[in-house]
Amino acid sequence: MKDVHPKNPENSDQHETIKFNTSFISPSKLVSGPSISPAKFPSVPTTAVNLENAGSINAADLLPSQSSHTSSTEVPDSSHLRVANNHSSGRFSLASENSYVPSIAGLTSEDEEDDREDNNIETSHNEEEDLQSILNGLIRHENHFNGQISHRNSLSSPRQEISFLDLNIFPNSETVQNGEEYYNKYIRISKDEDEAAFVEKLKHFFILSSAGKPVFSMHGADDIIMGYMGIITTIVSTFEENMKEEIKSITVGDRIKIVAINKNPLILVAVSQISYEMMSFTHNESVEEELHPRPNSLEDHDSDSDDLILINQLNTLYNYLLSILSKPTIEKNFHNRMNYDLRRVLTPLDFHNFEALCLKLTYGLPLLKEGEKISDTSSFDFYIGELLDSSIQSVKIRNTTRNRLNNIFLSCKRIKVKEDDLDSEVNSDSVSFFSKAEDQERYLGEDLLFSFLTTSSNRILSFMKPRNHTLSNEDLKILFSMISSAEMQSGDSEFTEDLWIPLCMPNFNPNGFLYVFVRKFDLSEYVEPRPTVSQPLSIILISSNKNTFFKMREISRYIITKIVKGENSRNNPLSRELLESTKLSILNDIRVPAIKHFIYKLKCSNQFIMNDMVYYNNDRSMNTLLQLVYFYSILHNSKATKIKSKLKATYNHETGLVRQINSSRSESKKLTYTRWNGAGTSVTGFMLSDDVYEFYCLSNEEIGSKDLIANSLKIIQWCEKYRKRLFLGEGVTF
Amino acid sequence: MSAPTSNQNPQSSQSTNRFAQFKLVLLGESAVGKSSIVHRFVKNTFDDMRESTIGAAFLTQTITLPESKTTIKFEIWDTAGQERYKSLAPMYYRNANAALCVYDITSRSSFSKAQDWIKELKKQAPEGIVIALVGNKSDLADSREVEESEVEEYIQQASEDGSSIITSECSAKSGDGVLEIFTSIAKSLPVEEAVGAGTNRNRAGAGNRRAGGVDLGRARRPEQASSGCC
Known about the structure:
- The structure holds 2 protein chains of 2 kinds.
- By secondary structure, chain A is of the alpha+beta class.
- Chain A contains 23 helices and 21 strands.
- In chain A, β5 (247-252) and β6 form a beta hairpin.
- Chain B is of the alpha/beta class.
- Chain B has one domain (10-200): Rossmann fold, CATH 3.40.50.300.
- In chain B, β5 (130-136), α5 and β6 (165-169) form a beta-alpha-beta unit.
- Chain B is globular.
- The chains are: A alpha+beta, B alpha/beta.
- Chains A and B meet through α10, α14, β13, β14 and α15 of A and β2 of B.
């Protein structure tokens, strides 16, 4: 591997272009090129604001560079690359202003009124045809570029298992024999002292103090890291002092991106060689240019958006630090002594959590011990949530069940106890839930702010919050990461272990702590006859008062009692319902055999659902996981810009009726179609979105545009029909 | 009918009724094995890869003292040893009947940290709190840094100052000595008082915590009257 690390500038490739992106606002030039990207390297050269006066600090001394000059890069003919790599890929996006409204007609509703939504039967046919026409246009377009007809090889032969190496997701795929070797060499976290192995890693995260003291490094022993800490602080402080601005990112050609955020007294740095992390959100304009050339249409480009993926990752790491220490604690420690070693207040668990976060954020992979296999998909869930702008995943349960759970939470706030019992700490025996007497009574849950009932995979079944406060999805992410890391310690349901965790919620209040009560219980233990499958659930109660553990504990017992016994004598217990309904079985419910994986995100609540990844390749292996991460990253990050296409004109007359009915949803309709060919198989990715939803799906079977559209719409309709079951909604407020 | 003729031995029936409940807190430096001791006691398991505790964990376990035929339920606060959680410690020991100050026999610094905790407990904890100074990792005697004689000396010193401290070594890994510590703590606790305070209460609910119901029959602890506030 060519070493272009700042430490060895003399070795660097002379043809690399290095770009500095700073917060300095200069007249920007869009430098992105067209983006028909080969699978080998799916992102176009990154765009960045050129630092016009970079010479004044002699950037060339810091990093090897020809100059900060960049130009529009012509992407090489993809057919040429296809020969070279035995792969080809075309990616096209198009936003249409037509009115394609997914219809919910055509599915017979099977139950429950509360899940029923308005139908728009008239629109379904038109929409399907319109989408098909557009998609056919895209496919023709792709064939033109690929120099082949995608559908020619209607694969009647059984599809082959492809390795993520075949897709050239990561650089240097050809240097290893198999996926496992690649993982060990380039991905696996290693604190080795071998510097050559260290620089081979695809991804690095560093957290250090402004004075250069290391706090955390994803890879490498201390001896190796120290030198790099020095370089980072030098670069950051040079920009700060000489140019009165903060460095944000450095791009080395199209191979390496370095992003830094300055959270004085801490600096966080990410170094990535991963193509899908370097994509910018606004480069996907090839179709537009083909259909509707826009001469000189280069606009000011928000340079931050290029770095957004890595910036978000760094913010997640920073939020973790805040959550365990809080902002004042960090500042106080460094205020007293500039060269304070923050590692002194971090526990081994914190470093474990950092490492787990690094892997989840980058690859969607869990932190595995040597030889350990992936046992659950929580790291993939986390990645997709992150990809979809901090969306959280929902669980399918009946809306009435969810409402009953919400009401149980609400009733917690009304439990009264005698003043006595509260003051004398706790005495569970004298707490009376339903006491009506007024004298000397207070509410048991007066300090209770947020309540959650979650599955073991941290999906929320029900939650309660105060009227005027919310926990952001970023905060929830931190909360669940923390609880999962504690989960290892109490896996056995044979005895109960209640946790009481002081945690700072960075978006809620970075300056103070909340206190988190966690009780895990296995629902299957309360159902007769006892089911074979266990159903572990967690009750999470967040209090503003650190002395309320026993009150929260009492509330958790109350909640469990209500769930397993029913709220009152008229109601059936919720346990059986909860046991049965938490599996998402859409791919069994409706017949969409060609679609192997999908994600549906409801935009207004920023929540999503997706099916189990096992449907994609019949496994939950690392290979499958890395492929899904890659495909969805490309699909998502290929967000189409809004354009006026000729297609719009073509379809306007056909869709006039639809437009009238649904003008509100017609503005932001977008679709993206992606196809990866290679290794004797092909994968089709499809994205469709409007103001209400984003839908992504993958198929690794040969699928025609007609079926792709029809099946996608079928799933979308299903999701809309069962929206109240599938999505958590707003929870309940008090 | 007269009681002795029933098939129930009056003595044994009495023994099942004798019940007392105590709060216990574990304190000590990070990584000395507090959670491991608790898990050995409660679950009889040991996990070599245990991660550090975040905040604190609350567990319960019951033992029976055969001599006095009394069932004793421990409510245990397993606290995080990490410095950043130190400010929370008072809320865990404030109402405690007993405290285990744990050190690692292979770490001198952890031994002096345990002594600091004892000092703090003397000042801040409720009067009459039973204190045990516990040296964990006795299976690693080869790398021992804290000699038993030093501990004796320290205890000697403390008793001259009028405080009695239970001391013992154990290995959460092998299980050696763990149960013994809890038993000797139980014997030092004011069991009779607690039983006396609890006899009139219905304890039907005790032991059904897995059913998720409210435990209606917990004994009121005598300390609550004396310690007063929370």
